[in-house]
Design brief:
With 268 residues, this protein is an all-alpha fold. The chain is built from 14 helices and no strands. The chain has a single domain, classed as Orthogonal Bundle (MetI-like fold), CATH 1.10.3720.10.
């Protein structure tokens, strides 16, 4: 419940960013650079969380940057889940060379560090928001494929699957009408927990300067831009860092709660 409430609060703040703040996150005013949070000057000029080294409002940048982070996390989970679940269901149900080829591809990707693979893909494809989402999906589909395959190997031997086959249902109907609905539980749990990992991965790429373009505010880029001012303006990195930490914690707590709710073994 704590994770769900925190996540709902974060979503409401990010969705209502145009109402909460009137400042343009890209507007610069060097005369107001590095105003401390809740200082008299910051409150008078309408910057409650202060400004960065270029005089941009930190509150508006944090809220609009959260939109990018959550968009990347959710879109990456959807893309990775759709591809990984399809591969896992197909490999587990048909077996043979289909399963061997899919699992060897999984093994190859597991041998490559996720961060190194993401950096290589972004360096090749170039910084853009769609490219970041594609990289999130490419680097995280394997966990869905392995889970879906393991569940399919168990479910395809059950009697209701045999009954559907005997009644004339084709393979794809059996897969997506009878097996997939009964394999959702572990997939949903993985999705809720992996969203936090993808948000961190996007922040890491933006911190390194190979994520989204520089004109788009993101938490990772804000942390990177403030690291040179830690001794004189600690809030430049601390404010987006706290936003990132709270969001990831809320997603992790929510994922643990979803797992406890959907797993019947933990309820016994």
């Amino acid at each position: 419940m704590l994770g769900a409430l925190g996540l709902c609060g974060i979503l409401l703040m990010i969705a209502g960013a145009p109402v909460i703040v009137s400042m343009n996150p890209l507007a610069q005013d060097v005369s107001l650079a590095r105003l401390a949070p809740f200082s008299l000057r910051a409150l008078e000029t309408g910057h409650p969380l202060g400004t960065d080294h270029l005089g941009r409002d930190l509150l508006s940048r944090m809220l609009y940057g959260g939109r990018v982070s959550l968009l990347v996390g959710v879109a990456g989970v959807v893309l990775a889940g759709a591809f990984g679940v399809t591969v896992g269901l197909t490999a587990g149900y048909f077996g043979g060379w289909t399963e061997i080829a899919a699992m060897r591809l999984v093994d190859v990707q597991l041998a490559i560090p996720t961060m190194l693979l993401a950096m290589g893909l972004m360096a090749t494809m170039g910084p853009s928001l769609p490219n970041v989402i594609v990289v999130m999906g490419v680097t995280s589909w394997i966990v869905y494929a392995r889970t879906a395959r393991a569940v399919t190997l168990v479910l395809k031997q059950l009697q209701y699957v045999e009954a559907a086959t005997c009644c004339g249902a084709d393979h794809w109907r059996v897969l997506f009408r009878h097996i997939l609905p009964n394999a959702w539980t572990p997939i949903i749990v993985i999705a809720t927990q992996q969203a936090a990992q993808l948000i961190l991965l996007e922040a890491s790429l933006s911190f390194l300067g190979i994520g989204v373009p520089p004109q788009i505010p993101t938490w990772g880029r804000m942390i990177a831009e403030g690291r040179n001012y830690l001794t004189s303006a600690w809030w430049l990195s601390t404010v987006p860092g706290l936003a990132l930490m709270v969001t990831v914690l809320a997603l992790n707590f929510f994922g643990d709660g979803v797992r406890d709710t959907l797993d019947p073994k933990l309820r016994m």
